[in-house]
Structure of Class I SAM-dependent methyltransferase:
Amino acid sequence: MSDLKLNLGCGDTRLPGYVNVDKYGTFGPDIQADLEAVPWPFETDSVADIQLIHALEHMGQTTGQFLNIMTEMHRVCRHGARITIKVPHPRSDGFLGDPTHVRPITPNVLSLFSMEENRKFIERGWPNTRLAMHLNVDFRILSVGYKLMPRWQQRLKAGQVTNQDIAEAIESQNNVVDEITILLEAVKDAA
Ligand SMILES: C[S@@+](CC[C@H](N)C(=O)[O-])C[C@H]1O[C@@H](n2cnc3c(N)ncnc32)[C@H](O)[C@@H]1O
C-alpha cells in the first residue's frame, strides 16, 4: 500500500517527509504543478496523507475547477487517507483581505462531498447539492476545529463569554474565528 504524503500549495513551507507541490517554482517545490489542471501527476490510490494549509481557498476559481480538484483528490487518495485542511474563516479580515482567495471553505461546503451527509440531505428533504453522489466521491468529516481570534480567546478565558455566546457570535459577527481546521477521511471502499 502506498504511503505518499502530499503538501499541496506548499509555498515556502516545506514539510519534511512530504512531496511539496506548488503552482509556482519560487520556493523550489518538489513538484511544480497547477492543481487546477487535471489529471494530477499522482497514481490512483497512491496517497495516504494530504496537507492543504491555507491553500484550498486559493484554488478552483470556477465551480468546474473546484469540483475537478475534489474529484482528483479523491482519485489519488487511498481508502482511509487523511486530508488536513486549514483555511481562514470566511468572515475574517484574513479571508476578505486577499484577492487570491477564490472561495470560502467551510464544513458545510465540504459536507457536500460526503456520501453520509448526502444521504442525510435526502432523508431530511434538504436542498443541499448532493455532490458526493453526482461526482462519485466520498470524504468523511472526522473533525472540525475553530481557532478563535485572540480577543475572543481572552474573553472566554476571563469568563466574560460562554461557548454558547461564541457559537452565536460566529454566526453573526466578523473576526470571531481566525482559522478553521477540518480533517477529512477519503472513503473509497463500500465499507
Ligand atoms: C497562502 S499560500 C500557503 C502556503 C503554505 N501552505 C503555507 O501554509 O505557508 C497558498 C499557496 O497555494 C499555491 N497555489 C495557489 N493556487 C494553486 C494551484 N492552482 N496549484 C498549486 N498551488 C497553488 C500558491 O502558489 C501559494 O504558494
In short: Residues 9-11, 13, 22-24, 34-36, 53-55, 58-59 surround S-adenosylmethionine (CB under 6 Å). Residues 117 and 123 are 10 Å apart (CA to CA). The longest strand covers residues 77-88. The chain is about 30% helix and 25% strand.
